[in-house]
Amino acid sequence: MTALRIARHDGEPEIEADGGRAPAAPLAAAPSGGVNARPARRGQLTIRGLRKSFGGTVVYDGFDLDLPLGSFVSVFGPNGCGKSTLINMISGLMPRDGGEVLYDGQSIRDTRISYVFQNYREALFPWLRAIDNIHYPLKIKGMPKKARTARVEQLIADFGIKIDLNAYPYQLSGGQQQAVSILRALAPEPEVLFLDEPFSALDYEMTLLMREKLQAIFQKTGTTMMLVSHDLEEAVQMADHVLLLTRRPTRVAALVDNPLPRPRDAATLIGADFVALRSQCLEIFQREARVETL
Known about the structure:
The chain has helices at residues 83-90, 130-140, 145-159, 174-186, 204-221, 232-238, 272-289; strands at 5-7, 13-17, 20-23, 44-54, 57-68, 72-76, 98-103, 113-116, 192-196, 224-228, 241-245, 252-257. It is of the alpha/beta class. It has one domain: 3-Layer(aba) Sandwich (Rossmann fold). 39% of the residues are buried. The model is unreliable at 1-37 (pLDDT under 50). Residues 1-37 are annotated as: Disordered. It comes from Futiania mangrovi. One of its GO terms (molecular function) is ATP binding.
């Protein structure tokens, strides 16, 4: 299920994700103001000496990276290069074999983080209505009902997708379920939101709509967002910076800036500037993904 900063009934904080649990820092209750009530953290996301292996396969070995907080970063690279592994480690969802991750000089445990997974069918509590799923992280932290209702109503209005909030997840379309997952992740006003291929299971029409809605939330809140995508069009459309990775052991192939104005809708995708930028990223990707043959 979507990773949220919550606490068990015995008071021990944890992350919940797809049925598994890992230690996490407690999340302070969100204020009752609008979506932009808490200023976004600025500064740098600093990664130094990141290491990770699975069995005898080295994925990361001394990986370094600096990214500006308050920006939208897309992660793209060859199959198996460790895109999801990267965000799982820097979000605290997966242990690192070595290295350091700092958000504006603060540890992961001191940073408010939310996570949206690809599999929306398993991301929501099936026994709770959509509205109760969105309320959940605020309720578990003890936010008064009036305050959390105001927070959730404002968030839903800002996101702007029509959903029967009294329906259970199985009664909603895939796009609506993923929208609820995103809203639940945004409800505690995270400083950093990680999204692991959140639209890959949706049809193209819904994908385009969800891209626009997520951009609108990003523009309004300034929340740092990091998106893993297997779709280069999507990666370029969404990002301020496209992080292109190499094959294993994974390094940074390039960090390509996207200066195109927002919002970037479907019409943006056929513009000359967008096509040129996508072509630049594609050229880098093809170079890095190329497999030498004998």
